[in-house]
Structures are given as C-alpha cells and as structure tokens.
Amino acid sequence: MLRATHKTGLVFFPAFDWAIDPTHPEREERLLYTQDQVFEEGLLDIDGIVELKSDLVNIKDIQRVHFCVPDPWAVITESHLISAGGAKTIGMAVMDGTIERGFALVRPPGHHANRVVHGARGFCNINIEAIMIEYLRRAYGVDRVAIVDTDCHHGDGTQDIYWHDPDTLFISIHQDGRTLYPGSGFLNDFGGPNAAGTTINLPLPPETCDEGFLYAIEHAVLPILEDFQPQLIINSAGQDNHYSDPITNMNFSARGYARLTSMLKADIAVLEGGYAIEGALPYVNAGIIMAMAGLDYSHLREPDFNPDRLHQDPDVTRVIEKTCNYALEIWNKRAAITHTVRKKPDCGERRRQIFYDTDNILETQEETIRICDDCAGALRIDSISDRGVRMLGVTIPRKACSRCIEQGHQWYENGDRNHYRHIFLQDRVTDRYSERKD
Amino acid sequence: MIIGLDVGGTHSDAVLFDSRGLVRDIKVPTNPDNLYETLLTAFDLLMEGQRPEDVKRLVLSTTLATNMVVQNTLPPVAMIVSGGPGIDPEHFRVGDHYYVVRGALDHGGREIEPLDEQQIKAVGEQIRAAGLPYVGVVTKFSVRNPEHELRLAELLAPYVERVFMGHPLSGVLSFPRRIATTFLNAAVYPVHRDFFTAVQESLAQKGIVVPIRILKPDGGNMNMATSLDYPAQTILSGPSASVMGAIAYARADESCLVLDIGGTTTDMAIILDGVPVLASGGIEIGPYKTLIRALQTRSIGIGGDSVVRVRDSQISIGPDRLGRAMAYGGPLPTPTDAFCVLGLADGGDRSRSVQGLTPLAAALQLSVEEIAELIFTTACREILTAARNMVSDINSRPVYTVHEMHEGIQIQPDRMLVLGGPASQFAERLTTLFPGEVMPVPHWQVANAIGCALARTTCEVTVYADTARQVVTAQGEGYHQNIPASFDLGNIREIALELVRKKALARGANPEFVQTEVVEEAQFNMVRGFYTVGKNIRVRAQVKPGLIHGYDPQTETLNRSDL
Ligand SMILES: [Zn+2]
Ligand SMILES: [Zn+2]
C-alpha cells in the first residue's frame, strides 16, 4: 500500500468564493482543477498525508509584521485571514511535531506584500509567509529561518520585510526583473547594512528550463542553506515558472517542480502565484504534495508535456551558471561586503517609490535603520501614499539591543503628530503594537 | 404492514409495524455462518399468526457483505484500470488479477491517451483463461467522461459474465476509492445475488410477495433490483439502522448524539437539526477505502457484555466479548454484571455477578458495590470521551470557502438518544455525566429494526456542467445533454433535482413523497485569456435521509393506508 515516507500535512483553502474581480487571474476558479486532481489522485487518503482545517490569523499576528494604513481591516478581507491562517496552521503542526512537513495550498497569495501596506500589490495584501514565521518565532522561539521563494516573480514583499534581518535568509529565484513584474530582485540587492548577504537574488533569464532551475538549487541554494543552518526552511511555492503560464516566460515542468521540492526538503511550503490553472496547477500541486510526502512522482506529467520542446538554450545555461557563481560569492564575502557598505555615509537610509499595481496606489517611502552590530537595528519608516495618508512606523526588532530599543522609542515619541496621520510602534521585544493617540 | 429486520453481529432484531404502530418485536441469536437460516427463523417467529399478504413493505439490513469483507472470503474477480499521469495505478492493486492498461483522461474528461483495444482484448483472453466471470473496469476521471469505461465494458463483454464499471458508483472524485468500490461490487455480487434471490423465493413460498428492500449505510434503502448493480452498498448498514431508529426523536433545532449500546460495541452518530451527519469520505472497511456513502458513525469496543478487567490498578472494559454476562452464565465479569450487582438488571443471577466482581473489587480494595459503580461510571465516561472525539473530528473538517469558514458550524450535542439492550440503565447514569437531556429511545431494544422498517429510499446524483462546451453530464445516471451557453446554476440545480427524483423512484421511493434537496453547489466563471468563456457548474443533490411519510413519533403510529 502507498504510504508517505514523510508525514505531510496539507491545508487546502481554495477560497472558492473570493476573487480580486471576476476575470482576474486571482479568481474563484484558480484552484478548482487542482482540487479535482488532488481529490481524484486520492492524495488525501494516503497514509501519512493529513488534511488540516485552516485556522484564522488574528490582527495581532498581522501587526507583528505589517504597518497597515490606516488599519488592518482597511487593507484585508476575511479571505486573507484564512490564507495566512492556513500557513500558520501548517507552521504550528510542524512545530508541534504532528506533521513532519506541510504545504499550505491556499489563496490569496502574499509574497508581494511589504512591511508597509497601503493596499494590494501583485495580487497580495498581507505577507502570509512572514506572518507565519513571526508567529512561530514568538510562540515557539524559532530563531533562524530560511525562505526560498521559487515563484516566477521576485518576492519583493518578503525581501522588504527581511531586508534588515540577519536571522532570516531570503533567497528568491525568479525571472529576471528586467523582463517581468515587479522589476526588482537583482544580484546586487543583497540586504541592508545590518544583514548584508542574507538576501540572495537569483534572477534567471526567460526560457529557463528544468535543467536551469535545478542547477540553481543544487549549485547556489543548497550550499548557502547548508552554510546558514536554518531551523526552518520555508518554500514560497509559486507555480508561475511553468511553461504554460500565461503571464510569465519560463519553461519549468511539473516534474521539475517535484524534483525541486525533493531537493529543497522544505519544512513548510506555501502556495504563491501560478495562473495556468488547467494545464499546470493540477499537476504541479500534485507533484509538490507527492514530493513532500516522499512518494514516487515518475508517472506525473502534464498532458501536453513534451521534453523535446523544453531544451534549454546554451546561452541561458551560461547566464545561469554565472548568476549562481556571483550569488555564492556574495554569500561567501558577506562580511567584507558589510564592511564596504557601511563606509557610505548614508548607508542607513533608503528612499523608494513603491507602486501598488493591483490597487493603483503610489507610495513614497523613506527608511532609516540604526547601524548596529548587536542586533538587526531599530527601523524607522516614513511613508506617504498618493492618496495623501502619511504614516510613521517604527520597528524595534525581535532581539533588539538596549540602544536600539532606546532609539526606537525615541523615534516613536518624537514623531510629529501634525505631520503624520498615524504613528505606529512595532515593538517585537515585548510583542506589542501601538499607535500614538495624543 | 411493514417488516424491519436488522441482522446484527450477535442478535437479529425484527419488528412488525402497521397503522397501530409496533405490533410485534422479536430477537433471535445471529448465526454468522448461516444468515439465511437466521433470517428465516426471524421471519417465522415474527409472522406467527399474521397474514403474509398484509405485508406491504419489507426492509432488511444484513451483515452478509460486511462479513465477506471482514473475514476475507471474497471470491476472486478481475480488475482493469487505466490511470494516465499521476500516481502509478499499480499502487492501487486489488486482488490477484489486476491489469493496468493504456488510456487516459484529464480532469475535464478530455482524452489524453486513447485506449489500446488490442491490449484490452488480450487481457480479456487472460481473464477468460483464468475462469473469472466478473470484472471491474475503472478509469481515472471516468466521472467526467465515461467513454473509456463504457468501451472497456463493451470490449470485455464477450469474455465474462458481467462487467462492473466505476463511474455509476458515485460522482465523487477519487480514483483509488473508485477502484476499491468497483472491486467490492464485483466481488460481493455473486453471493449477494444468490442469497437475496433465495430469501425472496422462500418468502414468496410463505406468501410474502413484496419486493425486498435493503438498508444502506447512509440511512436509506434501495430495492433488490438496484442492489444487484450496487451490492457493495449493503456493507456496514447496521449503525444506520440504529440512527434511523432514533431520528424520529431528534428535534429539528438541536444536535443529538445517538448511542447504540449493544453487547459488544457502542455505535455513535450525530443528528444535526433532524438530519444525520454523513461521513465526508466513504466507508472504510478492512484494507478498503470506498466511495460508499455512509452516515458518520464511530464504534468503540464497549458494550453490556464487554469483558471487565483490572489493569495497572485501573478498570479496563472491552474491547473483547467472551459470551454473555456471568449473571446469564457467561465466563467473565461484564458491565451487565455491574448492573446486576446494583440491582439495575431484570433477571440474571446476582450471586454469579457478585462472584465475578469480587476478585476485581479485592484488587482495587473496594467493596463489590463500589466496584460495580466504578465499572458503570468508567464505561459511561469512555463512551462520552469517544463521542467527544467524534464530534471534534466533525468540527475540524476542512472547508473550502470563506462563507463556510465564516459560518463555522460547531456541533455541540444538546441531547443524547440512547438505544440498544442496556439503554435504560446507561441513560440514567449518563444523565449525571452529560450536561443535556439523556433519553432512551422508545422500544430501545428493537429501535434499530424500527429504523430499518421506516427508513426512506435514498440516493444522490452529481451533475457537472460546462457552459463553454455547452454540455451537462451526470455520469452515474448515464445522462449527457447539450445546453445553451446561457444556462446557470438555477438551471443545473433543476436538472439535478429532477435526476435525483427519477433515480429515487427507480430505486423504489414512493412517488408521492420524494423529498429532494441540493447538498452542494458551486458555479465558477471560466476565464481563458481575458474573457469569461463560460461557467463550470457543479451540483450534488440527494434524497434527504429520513423516515417514510406518515410516521408520527408522538403517537408511534403510521398514518398510511397503502402500507
Ligand atoms: Zn508570481
Ligand atoms: Zn541594536
């Protein structure tokens, strides 16, 4: 009889009654055929695969990660509470040891949601992986976490949230930002001055095939993970690298995704994008579940799979090899890079404009990080959207040193109420979130 | 008059019911090696002095198929399956004659790979050479498109006596369960056919000529003709007889826990707002996970005759039964002996019960009365714990929409309905341990047979429509029609309700009182590129499980001139 070699939990929440709008890629129908395939394969009946009911996250779980402007209720729907809750449910089950690994097969996705949220960007409102991770850190004392984002789009939201965190290794493999939304995630984006090197971007050229993805996993991702020694590996398992995806240009197959999953051995996978809902998702999702559970997936393939059509161009291969070497070099030389970065006088400042394509909002942001050798550094964010709402957000990091705690409080208390509509403090030391109301 | 007969593992209960209510009830020991004889004995006893021509309805629940599966006495049958991409169908092998052939469909029922007719004919030759008269054919996604199964059946017909297909069994998606269920159908078939044909003939000789109805595990029945196509749907019908026996006493606005406390086991189930809760998957029995629809029930090894021991200074009850209680000549002490000691049992030799409990009492340094109390309370507590676990499992079933998540119905039983031999004794004690009302079901000793007698004919259909392709199908019903692109959920709902009604009538339902309902429905816009090309609509409809029209639980009478 068929039995999973790794006890695998699955939260399946297809949100069959939620859409951004009726014809949007992020619509009710998205996981319908995936459900058909998963059910027909009988995956949930296999010994060692368990289906868990999604829990909801609460507002505190969101505030541990985000500054929502003006407040969480204004930027989320109930569906977001459930999809983040699905990730959290899997995370808790892994930590409790009731499952060995788990997959939150949920929607809506979250990896384009930054720390500051004025609305939806890239179909995402809140970052469901970050909400899960920060909950697990608080509830279970987890410290070192690695996130490997294999969605075709750069996981810019997750990168933003962990830009300054040396305890979170964020690796994103994606189609080159010069050719695809959100247009970021280049090799030299390697993290802030307190966390240089713990953000790793692997932009891959369009038309990358199974061969190229698996090369990047084997030659860049796995060695860095091995070195970083995370307590948990999270896979942001987007499926839009598939050769049939309508909004991207990659050539990854279902069996390739399964193989990637076997190699990565993530503790937790969370579904992100993937919009070839009939021809790819049913097979990719089945493949990920089978690979996580340790089942044989050699009979899995898309109906139109033709390996002859999916040969990687030698030029593409060369670019990927170079990219991987360069990323490894950044990782290996991160101490020296930190030193160089900190020499710049304004290294603690970041000025950016962020476009929310889904909600059509433009945000202007100024960020100040306290350069610190003892912790991730106090962070101050001044943000205004083109809808006119200005906010000041201060984060005191989880393991803040006394001087960063002091700096954080100072920023919070000195914020000018005439200037800012909202002044928020995210105090991760006491796990408290407050808004100044004087 | 109606006959309800429930063949249990230890006892068989039969009732005779008419407009006055319960006319007669009997209990006979079950002979598991000769159920035929058990049935006929029960009939003879029940019908003594009655006019056979007055019997208008006859419903049986038997352990015939269950025993074959549990005792592993199923005859060999051949299975032919085709899977296509996904899990290797080799993993779902059942029996010694299992063939995987070429051919594949996708989740929309589109052909990915055609059947190889030469290969199938070659398999047919092998099956004939092996002397196997029955074959099951199952393809992945056959409920979306039965063409391959139909063609397989056609190609194999010359080689065997009968072919069983997978797609008519259920509209539910699960290839492995479809394989297991089709296998069980084919394997149970010959014994089921011979048995019920023999019963039907014997009854005819006695002058009872009404068609036999057979109880299913979903709390409904089907006529014998239907059962020949779906004999596996008779498996594990016992607990559903009990639930149907209690259902008349469950109000429409509360959730009830039903406990059927027997000699060996206690079966439990939930009735929510007057309707029994169905299991989310199908029956699981032995190594088989099936698509056979069933009530959500749980069984634990604690009953009136369970063996009581002291283990690690604790009372331990069951799960084994080694005959009757000591009070009735059995070998080891049981909860029934505890009742006897406490003066709660009618009859029985109290001194033998005392003798049985004395060493247990000594081991725990208690008096015999104290140990009897402890056994009683322990049995009740363990039953309640199992019930709580079952409720919590139902409450933690996954949901797939924001709406369902929001509704989040959490069952919390308000009342307990108890039936089975020791129901009255247990009900009294459970009252002290359960916050709600505890009520022994009237005629608790035979309420299961009453449930059997009064259960409706049930069935369900699954309808699947694609307005882009302009088709609506219900594969189990052999239904396939073209529809206008403008069809919506309302139209498909109508089709589903009409189909389920027709199906119920074919299975023996009373045309004047068929209560149908939609149990699941969803409609999705299908968007290709940037355009909505159509709707994908899915509707599941059923005959609501319940009792036949005309039964009044208050007066316990039946107001039906035709029965
Ligand atoms: Zn994406
Ligand atoms: Zn610091």
Describe the 3D structure:
The complex is a heterodimer of chains A (438) and B (563). Chain A has 438 residues and is an alpha/beta fold. Chain A is built from twelve helices and 16 strands. Chain A folds into two domains: 3-335, Histone deacetylase domain (Arginase, Chain A, 3-Layer(aba) Sandwich); 346-435, no CATH class. In chain A, a hairpin with a 4-residue loop joins strand 11 (349-356) and strand 12. In chain A, helix 1 packs across helix 9, helix 7 (210-228) runs parallel beside helix 10 and helix 8 (254-264) runs parallel beside helix 9. Chain A is globular, with a radius of gyration of 21 Å. Chain B folds into four domains: 2-71 and 190-237, 2-Layer Sandwich (Nucleotidyltransferase, domain 5); 78-187, Rossmann fold (3-Layer(aba) Sandwich); 250-303 and 313-321 and 357-440, Nucleotidyltransferase, domain 5 (2-Layer Sandwich); 460-543, no CATH class. In chain B, strands 3-2-1-4-11-12 form a six-stranded mixed β-sheet, sandwiched between helices. In chain B, strands 13, 14, 15, 18, 21 and 22 form a six-stranded mixed β-sheet that branches. In chain B, strands 25-24-23-27-26 form a five-stranded antiparallel β-sheet. The termini of chain B are close together. Classes of the chains: A alpha/beta (438), B alpha/beta (563). Chains A and B meet through strand 1, helix 1, helix 4 and helix 9 of A and helix 5, helix 11, strand 26 and strand 27 of B. The structure holds zinc ion (ZN) (2 copies). Residues 372, 374-375, 377, 400-401, 403-404 of chain A line the site of one zinc ion.
Question: CATH topology of the largest domain in chain B, anyone?
Answer: Nucleotidyltransferase, domain 5
Global mean pLDDT of chain B:
92
CATH first level of the largest domain in chain B: which class? Alpha Beta
Question: Strand sequence of the main sheet of chain A, in spatial order?
Answer: 2-1-4-10-9-6-7-8
Structural class category of chain A: alpha/beta
Tell me the β content of chain A. Answer: 15-25%
> Biggest interface in this structure?
A-B, 49 and 45 residues
Q: How many H/I helical runs of chain A?
A: 12
